[in-house]
Design a protein that fits this description.
The chain is α/β, with parallel strands linked by helices. It has a domain at about 5-90 and about 110-170: Aldehyde Dehydrogenase, Chain A, domain 1, CATH 3.40.605. The chain is built from ten helices and eight strands. The strands form two sheets. Strands 5-4-3-6-7-8 form a six-stranded mixed beta sheet.
């Protein structure tokens, strides 16, 4: 995996083309490959635990120690997600057989999207890039990770060390601010996981949904929400329409 600086020096489009070629080759599809990359993420968490806690303390003043939030949110929850994924991945990858008649052969096969983009926020800078990355790897995708430039110590740690654990052909870290993120969003991605606001990307979440992309938008705060592009608030009765959103937020 290239760090953010070399990624930009060698050309963003060149790297994106390389990641897409790696995905099209089928390299990320075998169970053994996915397990190896997930186990590498586990080693990253184990080896860099103290550095992660130190970086989040410097960036946000999160208290270090096994009984405090930084350890719980940035280490423990991520390791739990890894363990659940590794324990269930073989089952998740199997074809799901569905009802059919005597003349049919029918099943559901879960295929990866391709090249995905993960844009993480500043407040949970490890958790909210690592958990989506676990899912992306488990599903057989290549991924670009964009840590938040606001959490600069965590961003530097991720950019400098994650490359020692994951496959350079299939995963990349991009560093920088709004300008770099805007350049990223000018390219075609097969899926985007985005946590944050338009201030961090230079583009609104609604703009991303209007592009021909699959997007998962995650919003925290008092009315925490996760929304995919398919969840049209004007047509989905399970999601409040824009007029009702202020009332919903007060509940």
């Amino acid at each position: 995996m290239e760090t953010g600086s070399s990624f930009q020096q060698l050309g963003m489009q060149q790297h994106l083309d390389h990641l897409r070629a790696s995905w099209l080759s089928g390299k990320t599809r075998p169970l053994e490959y996915r397990v190896a990359q997930l186990e590498a993420l586990g080693r990253f968490l184990d080896d860099k635990k103290e550095e992660i806690l130190e970086a989040t303390e410097l960036d946000m003043g999160k208290v270090r120690g096994p009984s405090f939030e930084a350890f719980f949110s940035e280490i423990l929850l991520c390791k739990n997600e890894l363990n659940v994924t590794l324990n269930n991945l073989c089952h998740w990858m199997k074809d799901e057989h569905v009802d059919k008649n005597l003349l049919d052969s029918a099943f559901i096969r879960k295929d990866p999207y391709g090249v995905v983009l993960i844009i993480a926020p500043w407040n949970y800078p490890i958790h909210l890039f690592l958990v989506p990355l676990i899912g992306a790897i488990a599903a057989g995708n290549c991924a670009i990770i964009k840590p938040s430039e606001i959490s600069k110590n965590t961003e530097r740690l991720v950019a400098e060390t994650l490359s020692c654990y994951l496959d350079n052909d299939c995963f990349a870290v991009v560093t920088g601010g709004v300008q770099e993120t805007t350049r990223l969003l000018e390219n075609k991605f097969d899926y985007i996981f985005f946590s944050g606001t338009s201030r961090g990307t230079g583009q609104s979440p609604a703009w991303m949904c209007l592009r021909i992309w699959d997007v998962w938008l995650r919003s925290g705060g008092t009315s925490a929400t996760s929304q995919s592009r398919a969840m049209n608030p004007c047509h989905n009765p399970c999601f409040p329409c824009p007029q009702a959103a202020p009332r919903w937020g007060r509940l």
